[in-house]
Design brief:
heterodimer, A: alpha+beta, Penicillin-binding protein 2a (Domain 2), Beta-lactamase, seven-stranded mixed beta sheet, five-stranded antiparallel beta sheet, elongated, disordered C terminus, B: mainly alpha, three-stranded antiparallel beta sheet, about 5% strand
Chain lengths: ~625, ~425
């Protein structure tokens, strides 16, 4: 009894009272802790929970030609998506039937992507038809986890293909993704080759994000803050190319059924007017994921359509190299324009080097070019000397990459003393090695791109600008062209020398030369043929030329593989390109009014703007190097 | 001499305004919160209307109870206890299984929850038993009988199984015998086996620590060695027996116990709910996100939020201010009940016991529910009185408060 008296009702009441008070204090403190002190932490958690950012892929920039005609465009395409978290593999059969895929196709894709979050939608098939999309819409209830998005894909509205120049985009590889995580996500497309690759950073645009509210099942149920926090995607920059769609078309037509390459350049600016490597491949097969079968066919084709002959194929330049020796000899004072060398039908140096077409007799340098006399140039190169000759060749862009804005390029072979020493040892080679270099044969190879740059330099009296395919990009705000700047090239050859060589080339077409076939009524064409000796088969044909002779607007280099003599196959293609470019109503000049339909208010750009945009241009150069 | 004029009573003399208002406001806030919690949930769209109906029914129950004869409660206590215990037996056999528990009996127009009504039977019958003149709280048989009355429902409810409600009955029983005046030793003797069982859930080390503490307490009480020894042996065997019994439990029952012991063991089940509940409340901040604007609530991150997690709705949409208003209303109610219980003791021990029993039931619910949602208690599902959706719970609680209001009305012998 004593204990219970000490421990009476009042104490019992107090105990309950303090239990209540202490619990009240604990709850209040904890609420304060959660709702005031740790509020930011929980707020963020809550936002993470229910707000999902959806990346908005920007439209890729389109390509205009030099006259503002759209040559590469975008078009919408539907992509089928599956979100594994909500999807049941029981549906595989039905979907495979509807999209026309092989059994097991979906299973394979799902397994491939098993390592990623099952809440991330997987692109199962691109470019599905509208019928498939309607089917999904109609059967939404029975197709949990199946959805689609509208992707944009490339479209080539003009009939020009220019596969090697434009290039294509490709789904980013895992390796590329690792290296560029700051911009790209799984399933993104990235420029794979050609202009698409070089100018990727301009074309891709800036991604946007749309915030949506999702419920606890990640189901979208509305916009977050009515889209006030959303970021619109910004379309990639539209590029203005240097090519002329008509000239390009003519070039592509000319190569039908032929293998080879053509590059046409505006001599004064280095702007590439046409760029062809033949055979081509159909870019329309590369707008989405390319079917394996097409890849197989392209890779096993003996004509190697994927190979960019314009910048990668290197062959001996043949007689097209004779003007180079002439330039070197004239510049170095080894000959004068009046110097005469006799052609008895060949030249003996250790062995007999044969000329063609019998004996040409005594020739000045102009006529030696006109007649393409081998004897003249055998002797000339010996007089010039290997290294002096190689120096001039280097000045005209041989032996190193032209730096055209397409990443895949071959430097070719330009021999020099150093080169031979390295290759054969100091005493392992003789002067006899040099003789055939005078006529562009032997251990010498050039790409069509290099040859085009060379003929452009000749046409423009030794000065030009690095050849390039893109003029600049359209400023989306002002809708004006922001030009890229390219380095100038100066061969430091005198105008007088160039006049003589050009006249020689004039005679090739208009005199008693080898390329009368290239004559165009009303336009004076100058040119030079060449034959590249081919140890693997029939010789390759070269032709290079420029027009109009008086004031060159276009310089062309053409290679036709296994076509034998240069004039027969190569010169007519060059001729049609020159004609297409120059014979248009109103020859395109810098002051041309752009095609209104495609590019309203797109003016030509005054030269002054060049200087004002130096900062911008620096970035450009840096990015092009990448 | 008879008084000439009638005594002019104030309203407060017969009607406890604080008691009524706090319950009234809590129920109103409950309706507001249920509306928000079910607004965007098609499966629960009818719950607000139903709750409105139960509020109407409960209001009638409150006033009927308030005006009932003060003697009627002790009279109905025995039949009330027997009927509700029988219902608890019935629910084990005919109960509707929801999430592995059999807590409800479907009686057509509504799912009845017998464990709620059993609170009424138990609090009335145990109070009647303890307030008998024959009952001597110092005697071992009275203590055992008292605990038996309280623990028969506990065992039945654990078979459903419903850990939370069982805890409410344990708390009710302990508070009533405590209020009756059990000695510390008596209380210790009754509670210690429970502690032994509880500690054994947490492993051998916890069990041994608990046994050492019990041994120390027994030493402190300085009872005869044979009695101390017997109590100690009882504790040891309780712990062992529980572990043997545990093996025969169903997987679901085992999981319930395991989650109770370690919430992180099941982060996607109830552990997930606990995390989301905290996120909801914490993100509410000082002023809340605004009514119907809480994304945790409206986007259904917390399942069945209109029942056990209703406090999150208030915390998220009305912030600290709203939460504090609710918490304060509860504590007005609790302190009021404690005061009435203390003042009723002189006139009627039964009345005092029923009042403190009501306090025990309501406070235990509050402590487990709010403690769980704010993360200071383990995760056990019990409804929050007056706020959570549910007819059985609301009717039971208003009936209990009605009895207390009746007790208040009759606390003095008015002329």
């Amino acid at each position: 009894m004593t204990s219970s008296r000490k421990f009476g009702p009042d104490i019992r009441r107090s105990i309950l009272y303090y239990v209540l008070i202490s619990f009240f204090a604990a709850v209040v403190l904890q609420l304060f802790n959660m709702q005031v002190i740790k509020h930011d932490f929980f707020d963020e958690k809550s936002a993470d929970n229910s707000i999902k950012g959806i990346v908005q892929t920007p439209l890729r920039g389109v390509f205009y030609d030099r006259n503002y005609r759209i040559v590469v465009n975008n078009k919408p395409s539907y992509t089928l998506l599956i979100t594994p978290a909500y999807y049941s593999r029981k549906l595989n059969n039905v979907i495979e039937t509807v999209i026309g895929a092989d059994p097991g196709y979906i299973d394979e894709i799902l397994t491939d992507n098993a390592q990623y979050s099952k809440y991330l939608p997987i692109r199962v098939q691109r470019d599905v038809t509208f019928q498939v999309i309607s089917w999904i819409e109609e059967n939404k209830e029975q197709l949990p986890g199946v959805s689609y998005i509208v992707d944009m894909e490339r479209e080539y509205p003009d009939s020009i293909m220019a596969a090697h120049m434009f290039g294509y985009t490709k789904e980013i590889s895992r390796k590329q993704l690792e290296m560029n995580k700051d911009y790209y996500d799984m399933g993104d497309f990235i420029g794979n080759n050609g202009i698409e690759k070089t100018y990727e950073k301009y074309l891709r645009g800036i991604k946007g994000v749309k915030y949506v509210l999702v419920d606890s099942r990640r189901k979208e149920i509305g916009r977050f803050k009515d889209g006030r926090n959303d970021k619109e995607s910004i379309k990639g920059d539209d590029l203005v190319l240097t090519i002329d769609a008509d000239a390009q078309k003519a070039a592509e037509r000319g190569f039908k059924g032929l293998k080879g390459a053509l590059v046409a350049i505006e001599p004064s600016t280095g702007e590439i007017i046409a760029f062809v490597s033949s055979p081509q491949y159909d870019l329309n097969n590369f707008t989405t994921v390319t079917p394996k079968e097409i890849w197989r066919n392209l890779n096993s084709d003996p004509d190697k359509p994927l190979y960019n002959r314009a910048t990668l194929s290197a062959n001996p330049p043949g007689s097209t190299f004779k003007p180079l020796a002439a330039i070197a000899a004239l510049e170095e004072g080894i000959i004068t324009p009046q110097s005469v060398i006799n052609c008895p039908g060949g030249f003996y140096f250790g062995r007999f080097f044969k000329c063609h077409g019998g004996a040409h007799g005594p020739l000045t340098v102009e006529h030696a070019i006109e007649k393409s006399c081998n004897t003249f140039f055998y002797q000339l190169i010996l007089r010039i000397g290997l290294d002096k000759w190689a120096d001039y060749a280097r000045r005209f862009g041989f032996g190193h990459k032209t730096g055209v804005d397409i990443s895949e390029e071959n430097r070719g072979i330009l021999p020099s003393t150093e080169y031979y020493n390295k290759r054969y040892g100091r005493n392992g080679w003789t002067k006899g090695f040099i003789v055939s270099l005078g006529i562009g044969q032997g251990e010498l190879s050039v790409t069509p791109m290099q040859l085009a740059q060379y003929v452009a330099l000749i046409a423009n009296d030794g000065k030009s600008i690095k050849p390039h395919l893109v003029k600049g990009y359209m400023d989306p705000e002002t809708n004006r062209l922001v030009p890229f700047r390219f380095d100038p090239i100066d061969t430091k050859v005198s105008r007088k020398t160039m006049e003589i060589v050009k006249h020689g080339m004039y005679l090739v077409v208009n005199g008693a030369g080898t390329a009368a076939i290239a004559k165009i009524p009303g336009i004076t064409v100058a040119g030079k043929t060449g034959t590249a000796q081919n140890p693997h088969g029939k010789d390759h044909a070269w032709f290079m030329g420029f027009a109009p002779y008086e004031n060159p607007k276009i310089a062309v280099a053409v290679l036709v593989e296994n076509a034998g003599f240069g004039a027969t196959w190569a010169a007519p293609i060059a001729k049609s390109v020159i004609q297409a470019y120059l014979n248009k109503s109103g020859t395109p000049k810098k002051t041309d009014v752009p095609n209104k339909q495609n590019a309203p208010n797109k003016p030509n750009v005054p030269k002054k703007q060049n200087n004002g945009l130096k900062g911008e241009e620096k970035i450009v150069e840096a990015s092009i190097k990448n | 001499m008879r008084p000439r004029s009638r005594i002019d009573y104030q309203l407060e003399d017969k009607f406890d305004v604080v008691l009524f208002l706090s319950v009234f406001l809590l129920t109103g806030i409950g309706l507001v919160a249920i509306y928000s919690a079910t607004l965007n949930n098609p499966s629960a769209s009818g719950n607000f209307g139903k709750q409105l109906f139960w509020v109407g029914v409960s209001t009638s129950i409150f006033f009927i109870t308030y005006f009932a004869s003060p003697r009627s409660f002790s009279l109905v206590s025995v039949p009330a206890y027997i009927v509700t215990v029988l219902l608890l037996v019935a629910v084990i056999f005919v109960g509707k299984k929801v999430y592995g528990q059999r807590c409800w009996i479907d009686i057509g127009f509504f799912n009845m929850q017998p464990s709620e009504f059993a609170k009424v039977g138990t609090v009335l019958f145990l109070s009647t038993f303890l307030s008998r003149e024959k009952t001597n709280i110092e005697s071992i048989w009275s203590i055992i009988s008292g605990f038996a009355i309280g623990f028969i429902p506990v065992v039945l409810i654990l078979m459903e199984p419903d850990m939370g409600t069982a805890l409410v009955f344990i708390s009710l029983t302990v508070v009533l015998v405590f209020w009756k005046g059990i000695s510390l030793f008596g209380l210790f003797t009754m509670i210690s086996p429970g502690l032994a069982v509880f500690s054994s859930m947490f492993g051998t080390v916890a069990f041994i620590i608990c046994l050492v503490a019990i041994a120390a307490a027994l030493f402190f009480f300085k009872k005869k060695l044979i009695i101390s020894g017997a109590i100690f042996a009882l504790n040891v065997s309780a712990g062992y027996l529980f572990n043997i019994a545990f093996k025969y439990l169903s997987p679901h029952q085992k999981q319930l116990i395991e989650t109770f012991v370690d919430p992180n063991a099941d982060p996607l089940g109830s552990g997930y709910n606990a995390i989301q509940a905290k996120v909801a409340i914490g993100s509410g901040g000082l002023l809340g996100k605004g009514y119907l604007m809480g994304n945790q609530t409206q986007l259904r991150f917390i399942p069945e939020q209109w029942t056990d997690f209703i406090f999150c709705v208030i915390g998220e949409e009305f912030g600290l201010i709203g939460s504090l208003i609710v918490v304060c209303l509860f504590f007005f109610l609790f302190f009021r009940l404690l005061k009435i219980a203390a003042s009723a003791r002189e006139k009627s021990e039964f009345n005092s016991l029923v009042t403190v029993g009501t306090l025990a039931i309501l406070f235990t619910h509050f402590a487990i529910n709010v403690g769980m949602t704010v993360g200071i208690m383990p995760i056990i599902g019990v409804p929050l009185p007056f706020l959570s959706y549910g007819g059985s719970s609301l009717m039971t609680n208003t009936f209990l408060v009605g009895i207390v209001a009746n007790i208040y009305r009759n606390r003095k012998q008015y002329t």
